[in-house]
Amino acid sequence: MTAEPAPLVPADDPGALKRAYSCFPSGVVGVCRRTGSGVDVGMAASSFATISLDPPLVSVAVRQESATWPTLRDADELGVSVFAAHQGDLARQLAGHPDHRFDGVRPLALDSGALFIPGATAHLVCTVAGELPAGDHTVVLLQIQSLRSDPTAEPLVFHASTFRALEARRALDDA
Asked: Where does the record place the Flavin reductase like domain (predicted)?
């Protein structure tokens, strides 16, 4: 016998909405640049998504109130680092106070200003392709110009308001 599902609640209940959103796992990225004056600027985003192969597009969602995004948006190129499973503390740090986001980190910088977190599973050099207002966030479309990746490295996954590890499962054909 299966239990009856919980009753549906209105979407204007912020707690219920956050709980529902937390059911969907997502990758975690750092979006970073080095300014012309040599200042490293970055932020963490757990709302990263792949969008298109042609043209190569990804997206991140940025809070409307973000004080960091205005400093990033005008960069010639941005560095997007897809965090590896062991980089949870770095992701938290990059989401923390702006004055301490790069404490103890030796980022990898390109001449264009794109900045990367070392040890990430992927590094994407991106330009801003567009911004779409979306409620209390802005969806930022980023066009990938160049990249490197290591698909054998485990990614950092954000699910149910915490970082988690992935589990590899055997394909049904192997059973």
From this structure: 21-165
83 in Cβ contact with 120 (< 8 Å)? yes
Which string of DSSP letters, residue by residue, matches 77-119? SEEEEE-BGGGHHHHHHHHS-GGGTTTT---EE-TTSBEE-TT
Q: Is residue 91 within a helix (H) or strand (E), and if so which, with residue range?
A: helix 88-95
The pairing of beta strand 57-63 with beta strand 49-52: antiparallel
pTM for the full model?
0.89
Residue pair 127/144 in contact by the 8 Å Cβ criterion: no
Where do the structural domains in the chain lie, given as residue ranges? Answer: 27-158
User: Could you tell me which of 50, 94, 46, 98 has the C-alpha nearest to residue 71?
Assistant: 98
**pLDDT per residue over 152-175, tens digit each?**
999 999 888 888 877 777 666 555
Amino acid residing at 123: H
- pLDDT of residue 1 exceeding 80: no
Q: Does the structural domain 27-158 have CATH classification 2.30.110.10?
A: yes
Q: Which two tokens stand for residue 32?
A: 């970073």
